[in-house]
Structure prediction request, 423 residues.
Amino acid sequence: MNLPSSSPPVPERRIAHLDMDAFYASVELLRYPELRGLPVVIGGGQRHQPVLRADGTREFARLRDYAGRGVITTSTYEARALGVFSAMGTMKAAQLAPDAVLLPTDFEEYRRCSRAFKAAVRALAPCVEDRGIDEIYIDLTDLPGVQLDGGRAAAQALKDAVRDATGLSCSIGVTPNKLLSKLASELDKPGGLTVLEASDIPTRIWPLAARKLNGIGPKANEKLAALGLHTIGDIAAADPPWLVERFGRSYGTWLHEASHGRDERPVVTYSEPKSISRETTFERDLHAVRDRAALSAIFTRLCVQLAGDLARKGYASRTIGIKLRFDDFKSVTRDISLPAHTLDARAIRQAAGQCLKRIDLTRRLRLLGVRAGALAKVNDLVAAHPAVTSSPAMAACEPGSLAALPLFAQAFDAECREAAAAR
Prediction:
């Protein structure tokens, strides 16, 4: 007698979200362990480097002495307890925590630590989705033992591996999907390990503020609040047709599904970047005419750096854009499409200058950025058009004629050479 064969049960998805704890600040505390337990803010300039005294101790800059228009990059949990958070103006932060230590940013070191913790994770769990310098998603579903304990042991092994590789702590949330795992990783910070099942949603997820859902921005949160929906549970209790009527079919349906913890998105191990950009916030507001020389040097440097980024990553761009933020905190962007892809600094600089023609520059500037979009792999372009050179030298500045730009045009060649040499 032949018995019907039965297929093995499909394993339940177990997705982890790993988020480094106060990443930039924690990296700095490895370098300056005497600052542990103190409010520390990251976001100063090079002039805020600690000074080594004759007795071997260090003198640190304090927020109360800061003058400028910078923005906080991140802060330690002790500084956050005083109300100082990332993206806050440094002068405002100085009012809230005048005695907090101010340190300059060191992105090279942050990137090194980022590579180290991601390599440690991939050595144990190779299915990783990179979501930025300090966070990743990990598919734990098929790892040994995960179906027995929901992924707790695997997550602890990842936490231990990250600490061994970097000396840093992280928080991990493990749930059936990415949406819930991102929420879970925040629940027990710092150093948290939170494992949730669908049955935990009413007690652990629904009490959270609606804005905690990744996908609810300030405007949507404001509209939800006006409708009396303040928590994720409030959204979950709302009638789906009512949500669709007020937020549209796509977003209204998503609100209902997300509030019930439903998310079928896979962990994507690789995706092409949509754009690459460089920007800087000024220490003080700059004027397009009176600070022309300073803005010219900054503008050129950003274009050369962007060209270098494209060359190193093997991309060329067909859309160049700029971003300006004025002294009233209003931001504007402008883009221009090119006739062909480029990774040449001069072409980027010229296209960005054309974008400036379309902006009223009477107000002082707080931030300037340059962006390359509509990207294509240089190798693919070369394969399709063999006459195109694929040399990284395409990104270098070549002395010669440059069409007059509406702003920051003087001394381009000299500045371009200097910026390229400094890369």
Notes: The chain has a mean pLDDT of 88. The chain is about 35% helix and 20% strand. The longest strand covers residues 365-377.
